[in-house]
Amino acid sequence: MSYLADTVQPAIPVPPPLLAVNGLHKYYRDFAAVQNVSFAVGPGEIVGLIGPNGAGKTTVLRCIAGVLRPTAGDIYCAGYNLATQTREAKLALSLVPETPNLYELLTIREHLRFVHMAYGETNNFDTLAEGLLQQLDLWDKKDALITTLSKGMKQKVAVACAFMHSSRLFMFDEPLIGIDPAGQRMIRDMMISSAAAGAAVLVSSHILDTVEHLCHRVLILDHGMVIAAGNLEELRAGTRMGDDVSLEDIFLALTDRSETP
User: Fold this and answer.
1) How many CB atoms lie within 10 A of CB 25?
2) pLDDT digit of tens for each residue in the chain (261 aa)?
3) Cα separation of 60 and 73, whole Å?
4) pTM, to two decimals
């Protein structure tokens, strides 16, 4: 009688996350803006960050970007500790804020060059800038001063700036507000392409239909805490609301602040 050993399949290595947030707290005196938030975003992932107004979404993004100093917790970007390896961590990320803070007396092209140089990039500026401005329908405005642009155009410039250096983590805070439908589609496509190329993408938005169809996983914040996390199927299972409910249905059920009479 012969015995055949079971074939052991080699384990598929799981790449380390490009963003890891562990026990993040942010206090403003006695007010807890963010409490014990932990999550990770891996290469190739698009993760949504949603919540009611004042839930702490922008605070989380600003802490990750190094704009705000966390009260407690650890943040790692591309393996670098933001607190102790700040330069390396910041070089690995790009943030598109809800309200772009651009240099209004520069032209669009000058602004892109400034960002390119600020991150130490020296090669392929002309090709990269033209490609991004063509994609975002800004090429004809390349020599216009930022101060002359509409809100939507300024938002597009902020998006272009995010792609002007070698980011591995892209963060977007309400990136589609004020942008025309064609521009919205292009920015969504840029997020998808970035993830497909191995970047991590974290996007905060109140447009829940977009989040539902764009993101692989979603974090729901309320009162500064993560109250639910997972893909749509996991969120449906966790709320026991049925297999056909939308992310909007789940969000409204979990964050209902109406008072019971």
Assistant:
1) 16
2) 444 445 556 666 677 999 999 999 999 999 999 999 999 999 999 999 999 999 999 999 999 999 999 999 999 999 999 999 999 999 999 999 999 889 999 999 999 999 999 998 878 999 999 999 999 999 999 999 999 999 999 999 999 999 999 899 999 999 998 899 999 999 999 999 999 999 999 999 999 999 999 999 999 999 999 999 999 999 999 888 888 899 999 999 999 865 444
3) 11
4) 0.90
Residue type, 84: T
Q: Structure tokens of 199?
A: 């970047």
